[in-house]
Structures are given as structure tokens and as C-alpha cells.
What does this fold into?
Amino acid sequence: MRPQRLIGASGRPLNFTVRRRFGCSSLYAAVTPALAHGFRHGGSGGGKRSGHWYANVLTFKRAPYVLALSERSLLSVVLPGAPFHTLPARFPAALAQLLHALDVPESQVTTEVAATSPVVIASTANRRVLGCLNQFAFELSMHFSDEPHTGLLERELWLSENISSTIRYRVPREVALELLATQRSH
It folds into this structure.
């Protein structure tokens, strides 16, 4: 099962990026006006310890899902795609749920979730993360096939244990917890 991607005029996949400051790709806004509703144009910024988040729209058994991936830790958040216009409002709560499941202290969860607001629509700028996003999408499609009744949080926790060469053959869970621990020490 191949993930479905939104493709821009340049032929590059378009994804959403969570950044601290407002911004919006007008090309992406033209492709998906429902997702761009309520966003403002502006400069780019960075997230907190997890960096930017990249996402892709996937379809499993005719249902759309969004796989979001942290740029620095490769931690994954999986959300139901529909309704797409509520995705920016739903992402921070889904991230908080995952961080709580990883036993991240409440103060760090609050800080990290606050750094993801507002969600900004932009095209993908990191090829390394795009490759990981495609690999995780493939792995997630296999997980949907093998474990059809598993909840999304369990799928996120499963993805958080997948080793990746991009993060030096570590698992996203370890890297995310390490990044959040350095936030605590500063």
C-alpha cells in the first residue's frame, strides 16, 4: 500500500511543518485550502527541543491518516486525517498524549506543546526527514495490515521503538527523551 502525498507545482511532496512563528506556503494553501484556513503568512521559526515536525497524508483501508515526524528525534504522531480543517487544532493534543505515554514530566509536555502552536503550513525542506517519513509510512502500513485493531497511540509507541540510521541507529523514544532532558537542564 503506497502512501498518498500532496504534490506541489514543483513536483515536490508538500507537508505541514509545526513552527513557533506564523507562516504559510501559498502554493500549499492553494492545494489544500481547508488546511490553510485560519493561517497567516509570516517568517519561519523553529520548534523547541523536537525541532520542526513534518507530516504526510496516508490512506489505509480508505481512511486518511496523518503521520507527523519530529525533525530531530523522529518521534511520530499519527492522527486521523478527517476532518482536515481541524488538524492544526488536534495535533498539539495528540502530541501531548504521546509525550504523557512516554512518561515525560507535565512541565516539559506543556512547554513542548506550546512550541508547536500555531501549526504552520509549508513545504518540506529536509530530505533526510522526508526519507524517514516515507520509511515510517511503509512500516506503519505494515502495522495497520498486521494489527488492524490497534489504537493510534499504540501505533505511535510502536514507531517510537523503530531503529533509524538517521539518528545513529537509535530509537526515536530515546532521542526524544534525551532532547527533553537537555531542555530540563537548561
